[in-house]
């Protein structure tokens, strides 16, 4: 890895976006959220967006090789 490069990942699992209701029935979305999320529901975009904003900011300049899920 070149010096100065950073690599981080955010993988929140199922998210409550407009794509889920189009691709499957709402009951299935709720079931997946209960099974795959420790919170028991799909994540909302507003709940996970701050992680992306933080990782792209200067405040996270020393954060490297982290996986946030």
Please, could you describe this protein's structure?
- It contains three helices and two strands; from the N terminus they run βαααβ.
- The chain is mainly alpha-helical and 69 residues long.
- The longest helix has 12 residues, at 45-56.
- It is elongated.
What is the residue-averaged pLDDT? Answer: 80
User: How would a crystallographer describe the biggest sheet?
Assistant: 2 strands, parallel
- What is the CA-based Rg, rounded? 15 Å
For the record, give the distance between the C-alpha atoms at the N and C termini, rounded to a whole number: 23 Å
* Number of E-type strands: 2
Beta-strand percentage range = 5-15%
Strands of the largest sheet, in order across it?
1-2
Number of helical stretches of at least 4 residues = 3
Structural class from helices and strands? mainly alpha
Low-confidence stretches: none
Can you write the helix and strand succession as a string? EHHHE
Shape: elongated
Helix content: 40-55%
Instruction: Give the domain tally.
Output: 1
Protein name: SDR family oxidoreductase
Keywords: Oxidoreductase
GO molecular function: oxidoreductase activity, acting on CH-OH group of donors
Organism: Deinococcus metallilatus
């Amino acid at each position: 890895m070149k010096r100065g490069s950073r690599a981080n990942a955010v993988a929140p699992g199922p998210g409550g976006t407009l794509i889920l209701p189009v691709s499957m029935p709402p009951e299935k979305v709720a079931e997946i959220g209960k099974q795959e999320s420790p919170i028991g529901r799909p994540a909302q975009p507003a709940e996970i967006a701050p992680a992306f904003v933080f990782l792209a900011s200067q405040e996270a300049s020393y954060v490297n090789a982290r996986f946030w899920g």
